[in-house]
Write a structure and sequence with these properties.
This protein is mainly alpha-helical and 195 residues long. It is built from nine helices and four strands, in the order H-H-H-H-H-H-E-E-E-E-H-H-H. It has helices at residues 4-12, 16-22, 31-62, 64-79, 87-91, 94-106, 140-144, 163-166, 186-194; strands at residues 113-116, 121-122, 129-130, 135-138. Helix 3 (31-62) packs across helix 6. The relative contact order is 0.16. Belongs to the cytochrome P450 family. It comes from Vespula squamosa (Southern yellow jacket). This is Cytochrome P450 6B5-like.
């Protein structure tokens, strides 16, 4: 990653999110726009979920040790609840959660995000200045495969997401659903399902 990378990550966490909310115009929403957005919402949710499941199963098939650990995690959780698959059982599947997070790291639903710079921004320690209105591309795939953040990034390793390992990384080097007010609503499903 270039020297610009850390600054782009830091810039992403600034006050831009609140200002975007102020610029939303609800008068532009008619019935056709709402119907179109609903269709996109359901179509995108189906495709990204099915792709994530397919990539997850692919990685589990390639990694028998991880597959067995995931299987034990699922069986132990269900066994504790008299063989019933309940919401609480899923919440207890901590290793499965790590497997899903690693799948989303290695195979992010979107390879990049495009955002508009709301304010002129001087990148600290450089002569580079981003003018207001400039399009900024956030390379999600690049962040998720940067060895500075994820050593040996092509290796499927759910342990990257154990609490002690997550603490060593900048939180905005993991963006499978984007971040802020324009983040993919799919993140709510992951949070509520594996929360």
């Amino acid at each position: 990653m270039t020297d610009l990378g850390p600054y782009l990550v830091d810039m992403y966490t600034t006050r831009v999110h609140l200002d975007l909310l102020r610029n939303i115009s609800f008068s532009e929403l008619d019935e056709n726009s709402i119907a179109a957005q609903a269709f996109v919402f359901f179509a995108a949710g189906y495709e990204t979920s099915s792709n994530t499941i397919a990539f997850c199963l692919h990685e589990l098939a390639l990694n028998e040790e991880i597959q067995e650990k995931t299987r034990r995690d699922i069986n132990d959780s269900i066994t504790k609840r008299d063989g019933k698959l309940t919401y609480d059982a899923v919440q207890d599947m901590k290793y499965l959660d790590l497997v899903i997070l690693e799948t989303l790291r290695k195979y992010p639903p979107a390879p990049l995000l495009s955002r508009r710079c709301e304010y002129k921004y001087q990148i600290p320690g450089s002569k580079v200045e981003l003018p207001a209105g400039m399009r900024v591309v956030i390379p999600i795939y690049g962040l998720h495969h940067d060895p500075d953040h994820y050593p040996d990034p092509e290796t499927f390793n759910p342990d990257r997401f154990m609490d002690e390992n997550k603490r060593t990384r900048h939180p905005y080097t993991y963006l499978p659903f984007g971040e802020g007010p324009r983040a993919c609503i799919g993140t709510l499903n992951i949070i509520s399902f594996f929360g």
